[in-house]
Amino acid sequence: MNIAFFQRDLPPEKHGGVAKQVHLLANELVRLSQTVTVFSLSEKPDSALYEVRPCPMPPSLRSIRLTERFLLGWYFSRIPLHGFDIVHAHGDNFFMFGKGPQVRTYYGSALGEALHARNPLRALEQSLFWLGELAGLAAADVRVSISPGTKKYLPYIGHIVPCGVDLLAYRPANEKNPGPAILFVGSAQGRKRGQAMAAVYQRIRQQAPDAVLWTVGAGFEEGAGIHCFKNIDEDTLITLYQKAWVLCSLSTYEGFGLPLAEAMACGTPVVSTPNTGASFVLENGKNGIICGLERISDTVCGLLKDKTARDALAQAGGTRAQAFDIRTIAARYLELYHELIV
Q1: pLDDT tens per residue, range 111-135
Q2: Is the pTM above the cut of 0.85?
Q3: Which bin fits 257, alpha (ψ -120 to 50), beta or left (φ > 0)?
Q4: DSSP-assigned states of every residue in 221-238
Q5: Domain span at residue 119?
Q6: What is the pLDDT of residues 62-103, one digit of tens each?
Q7: Are residues 81 and 31 in the same domain?
Q8: Which residue of 26, 63, 325, 332 is most buried, as measured by CB atoms within 10 A?
Q9: Do 12 and 136 sit in the same domain of this protein?
């Protein structure tokens, strides 16, 4: 099967999020003997098994965030697709009417982002982009979301296919960090609430003075017990997941919550504030702890002091992570492709 993917950016230009998922899925489909071409603004990653073709968007338009955001779909729609059996858009398909058979995967919702944005201008931008997402629903033949919560903002979603994790790479290690280590993956600003994590950590240190906080993301500063990791490669990220005693997430909104799934795959317990992604990934608290921000510090401290509880959560999380194996996810998409073209 000859498959055309559409995705704005790819690793290493963008390390996480949708870019990472598209790269993983495309590689796995190639391993399943499919031919995949990704149309993107990024160059071909060194580890890509698939082909990459450039989107014909002029560089002058790419330098302006809003122009790129709202016109990229137009340039995607101008690309000839003769010879492809399936078109799979991972975003920006709101002008791609008649381009098919077409699958559209929604990795969350712009309206969900808008409702939880901390910056009014970002809230406005996301609200406008949500209208494009609605148009994309009409353009696609099959509509997929990565968790049930996305359906709240986007009607007519027909299938739930979660994000994938490479369980051959993301797996438990033999040893944890010698001392208690808390991992936070996300930016300091916005809905990830990294700044709040820094405040939570100070309360944790009052009960566990030897605990350290590892942050992976932009906007953090080194401090007493706080170690910041920026622009790290995937091997380093995996090591941090494996060595951490607890992953802590304070996000107000997640379409899925990939760091939670990756941490569980690496044998690390998860504590999260409530959001739709965490509810799905953690099965409403069955495979991790979901609690309000006011209880986070006490909850994390309790886990740091209780190895039996950590081990039980790690085991439950590891079992849950099997559902997100990228091989399972790729096989599910292949089923959807075949159903669409038969």
Answers
A1: 988 998 888 988 998 999 899 999 9
A2: yes
A3: left
A4: --BTTEEEE-S--HHHHH
A5: 2-164+325-341
A6: 877 778 888 999 999 999 999 999 999 999 999 999 998 999
A7: yes
A8: 26
A9: yes
